[in-house]
Write a structure and sequence with these properties.
The structure is a homodimer.
Chain A (H helix, E strand, L loop, with lengths): L2 H11 L2 E2 H7 L12 H14 L2 E6 L7 E6 L1 H12 L10 H6 L7 H29 L7 H32 L2
Antiparallel strand pairs in A: 1-3, 2-3
The structure holds a DNA duplex.
Chain lengths: ~180, ~180
DNA sequence: GGCAACATGTAACTTGTTACATGATTCC
DNA sequence: GGAATCATGTAACAAGTTACATGTTGCC
């Protein structure tokens, strides 16, 4: 289970509230590990119990109070330990490909529409990644952590553009049946 | 939830036992939808209750009895209905990329080892796909369903080889830090 | 005799999703 | 006045994992 670790990874950057984390999981780290705010709050509770994070309430003028979670030395150690354990193969589950597996029992027009939507989703992602790269990484001096993030970002950019190409190819094949 | 539908899709091909389905989820359809035998048996129970499959015990000489599940017309209809509903974005969760996100808090040598293993896993998959294509699809006359499977298979082959390239590129970058 | 493959399941637990619940501030 | 964003959570349920449980046949 790497949700715990994904949260710890986020907190290496800076202490954050559950809300901040949820936004992060919608943006940066969420590009390859998605989690809802409910999951994050539940997991934060467990991390607190284990002593991997320290949670402190901070009052803000006007706005509701925030609870800021800070990575503890124990949390940092847990993260390093986890990093040495073998990575699991990523879980793959794709509706769309399942549908291709029984073309005779499927609505082909609906499938084409879904392909179009899927392609657009990947294009949106691609644009997002490229913008982030240009804004935060291009032409900057980077430390080790930033270099790691850049590697992932560049791999994401490649992956998205290749995925789009493959989906477009599938669309053509679907049209020529 | 598409596990139910993935099972129904498998059963369009031919009636099968839970054991057969589990093997299928280890091989063909499992390339983009993984499920354990426990999940499959549980789901088969539900599909039976809904009337989407018909389950009949068949005795075999010597071997333990098998329970053969057949897709019903209601199941076929459910499948077509499902096919028109929007596909979900595939769930992405990748340990390995999470680890890249906090390079300073991670064991770099261990990470490299994990990358090597990951690359090998994709190579194994690639070989498997290519063999299946050669053995069952190349130079054959194909019906609609087989054509759909071939499309997925070819997209899988491309995906795997591109993934291997990207991972190798990441390895090089990791070495040059 | 032992191991792999065949064959089907239950139980306990962890993860992930959907819906509900509340309340403040800021911008239009 | 209404919508969006900020901010935190609970409850119920669905899906996925791990461990347990049992018994056969066929091959070496």
């Amino acid at each position: 289970m790497a949700l715990a670790e994904a949260i710890l990874v986020c907190l290496t950057e800076r202490p954050m509230s559950g809300y901040d984390l949820a936004k992060n999981f919608d943006a940066s780290i969420g590009f390859f590990w998605r989690a809802s705010h409910q999951q994050i709050y539940r997991e934060l509770g467990r991390l607190r119990e284990k002593g991997y994070v320290l949670s402190e309430e901070v009052s803000q003028n006007g706005k509701p109070n925030r609870i800021i979670h800070t990575l503890t030395p124990a949390g940092k150690k847990a993260l390093r330990d986890w990093s040495t354990k073998p990575a699991k193969h990523p879980s793959l589950k794709d509706d769309l490909l399942v549908k291709f597996y029984a073309l005779e029992n499927v609505d082909l027009d609906a499938l084409k529409d879904q392909m179009t939507i899927r392609i657009e989703q990947h294009q949106t992602k691609l644009v997002k990644y490229v913008r982030i790269k240009e804004r935060y990484y291009d032409g900057k001096d980077l430390d080790l952590t930033q270099k790691g993030k850049l590697i992932v970002l560049e791999q994401g950019i490649l992956q998205e553009s290749q995925t789009i190409e493959r989906l477009e190819d599938m669309m053509v094949k679907l049209g020529n049946l």
